[in-house]
Amino acid sequence: MKIKKYENKHHNRVIISVLVFTFVIYNYFVYSSGTETLAPKLSIEAIDGQVLWQENNCWTCHQLYGLGGYLGPDLTNITSNPQKGENYIKGFINSGVKSMPKYNFTDEEKNQIIAFLRAVDQTGYFPNYKANLQPNGWVEIDYKSTDSTAQQPNK
Amino acid sequence: MHKAAQFFKNKFSLQFILLSLIALILGSLFGVLAGFQYILPDFLKELLPFTKMRPFHDSSVTSWIILAAIGSIYFVLSNLEGMTIFSPKLTKIHFYLFLVIGIAIYISIGTGYMGGREYLAFIPILILPIIIGWVLFGYNYYKTVLNQVKNWPVYYWMWGTGIVFMIFHLVEAHFWFSPYFRENFVRDLTVQWKSYGSFVGSWNQLVYGLSIYIMAKIKNDNSIGRGKLPFFFYFLGLTNLMFGWAHHTYIIPTQPWIRYVAYGISMTEWIILGYMIYSWKKSLSEEKKENNTLAYKFLMAADFWIFINLILALLISIPIINFFSHGTHITVAHSMGTTIGINTTILLSTLFYIASRIDSSFKDNIKQLLAGFYIFNGALMVFFGALIAAGLKRSEWMYFSKNMPFAEMKINLANNYYIFLIAGIVMFIGILMLTIPLFKVFLKEYKIAVKA
Question: Which of A121, B29, B315, B387 has a CA positioned 20 to 30 A from the CA of residue B270?
C-alpha cells in the first residue's frame, strides 16, 4: 500500500491530549458547580409543561433568556410581569393571534405550561435591567434571590 | 474512459453531494416562505405555520452543510487523493442511513410529531441513528486515513477532530434526557447552548478544512496546510470550539467564571482577525495573478464574509455589547453570516472545484454562474444589513422604550422585514442560478458512474 509522508513533525498529539484533558475537567465544572442555581428544581408539572413547550415548538417564535425565535416576545419573566401574569397567559394561549396558531390546550395543560414558565421566571431576569455595566466592558448580572423566587408563584 | 468511470467505486460521494444540493434548494425555499410569514401572518398559516416552517428551514440548511461537507470529504479522499476507502460498504450504509433519517425528519416535522428543541426539532429518538451515522463516518475516515497518510496536513486533523467533536456535541445536546440536567433549568439551558456553539464549531472544522484543501489545490502549493502557522490557527480554532461557546449564554445566571473563561477565549480570535488583515495586505498585489475560476471567487467571498463575521462575533463576545445585542436580530445576522456567508460560500467553492475536475466540459465562468455569484453575495449583504438594523431597533426597544408594546415594536420593524424578505427572495434566485447547473453536472456524472 502506498503511504504518503509529509515533512512536518509537530507535537500535535501532545497538544490535542492537553486540550482534551483540560476540556474534560472544564466540562465537569460546567455541568456541576458552574451551573448551580438557587432556584428550586423543576416540578413534575413544570417538566410536563416543558414537554408541551417542545412538542408545540413554542421556541420557534418565543425566547427564554433571549434564546429562541423573534416572531413573538421573550417569556422569561412573563409570569411575574404585573401587566401580564398567569391569567393573561391562560386567556391568550388558546385564542391565537396573527402568526400564533390557535391551540386547544386543556386546563391541565395550560397549568403545566404556566408551571414551566413560572419555574423559568424563578431562575433570573431577562432583560437584566439591574445589571451593573462596568467601564472595562464587563457586565455583572443581577441574580434573583431565593426570597424573591419564593414570592414569584404568588404574583 | 470518461473521468466519472474512475469514480465508480465511490459514487456515494456524488450521492451525498446531490442530496446536499436538494437540501440547500429546499432549505432556501422554506426560508423565503418563512420570511413571508413575518410580513403576512396568515400566509400558509393553516398548512405550514411558522412552528413547522422554521424547523423545515433549519433542518434543511443544516443538512445541506453537513451532507455537502461529508460528500466532499469522501470525494477528496477517494478521487482527488486516490486513497482506497477502508469500507465502501460502510459509506453505502452511511448514505442510506442519512437518507432515511432525512425523510423521517421531514415526516416528523410535516405531521407535527416532534418534541425536540431548537435546531433539532424532530422527534428526539432520531438522534440515535444520526449519531450512529457519524460514528460510521468517523470509523471509515480514521481507518482510511490512518493507514494511508503519515504526518497529516492540517485539513486531515480538522476533519478528524470535527467528526469526533460532532459526535460528542450531538450527545451533549441531548443531556436533557437526564433529570440531573432537566430539573435545573439554568444548567439545562446552558448545556443546550454550549452544545450548539460547539456543534457549529465542529462542522466549521469540516468546512474550513475543505477550504484549506481547495486553496492548496488552486494555488498548487502544498505548503498551505503544513507548517507551524496553519497548525497554530487550527489549535486556536479548536480551543474556541471547546471553551469559547459561552457568549451565547452570558445573560443566563450561571457562575461568573464561565463567562470569564468565554470572554478570555473569544478574545483570542483577535489574533485571527489581525493575521487576516496582515495577509490580505500582503497578497493584495498578487491577487490579479490568481486563476479567476468560480471556486476561487467563492473562496475570496468566503474570506470577506469571515472578516465581516469575525468582527461581529468579536464585538458580541464583549459582555457589555453582548448585553445589548443578545436576544435581538444581531444574533440572527451572526448565525446567517456564518452559515450562508462562510459555510455555504466555502462549500459552493468546493463543489465548483470538484465539478470542474470531474467534467472538463463544465465551464464555471459562464455568464449565468457569474451573475448568480454576484446576485447571491449582493443579496446576502443587504440581508445581513437589514438584520443588523432590525437588531439595533429591537435592542433600543428592549432597553430604552420599555413602555412600547411588543406589537408596536414589530410594526416599527416592518420596513426591515420587507428588505429582509426581498433580499431573501433575490438570494434564493442566486442560489438557484448556482445550484441547478451544479446539480446537472453531478447528476450526469453519477449516471455515468452507475452505468460504468
Answer: B387
**One-letter identity of residue B295:** A
C-alpha distances (whole Å) from B38 to each of A62, B5, B121, B164 are 14, 48, 20, 38
What percent of chain A clears pLDDT 90, i.e. is strictly above it? 66
A40-140 is classed CATH 1.10.760.10: yes
Cα gap B434→B295, rounded to integer Å: 12
Could you say which of B37, B226, B394 has the minimum Cβ distance to residue A8? B226
d(C-alpha B54, C-alpha B73), whole Å: 29
Residues B72 and B214: beta-carbon distance below 8 Å? no
Q: Which are the contacts of A2, defined by CB distance < 8 A and separation ≥ 6? A: B148
Check: CB of residue B13 under 8 Å from CB of residue B81: no
- Chain B residues near residue A71 by CB distance under 8 angstroms: 37-38, 50
Contact B147 A141 (CB under 8 A): no
Is the Cβ of B257 closer than 8 Å to some Cβ of chain A? yes
- Put simply, the answer to whether B231 touches A10 (Cβ < 8 Å) is yes
Query: Where do the domains of chain A lie?
Result: 2-32, 40-140
Q: What part of B 63-92 touches A (C-beta under 8 Å)?
A: 81, 84
Average pLDDT score, chain B: 91
Q: Inspect the interface and report whether the beta carbons of A119 and B185 lie closer than 8 Å.
A: yes
Q: How confident is the model at residue A9 (pLDDT cuts 50, 70, 90)?
A: low
Question: Which residue in chain B is spatially nearest to A23 when comparing CA positions?
Answer: B242
pTM recorded for the entire structure: 0.93
| Residue pair B102/B23 in contact by the 8 Å Cβ criterion | yes
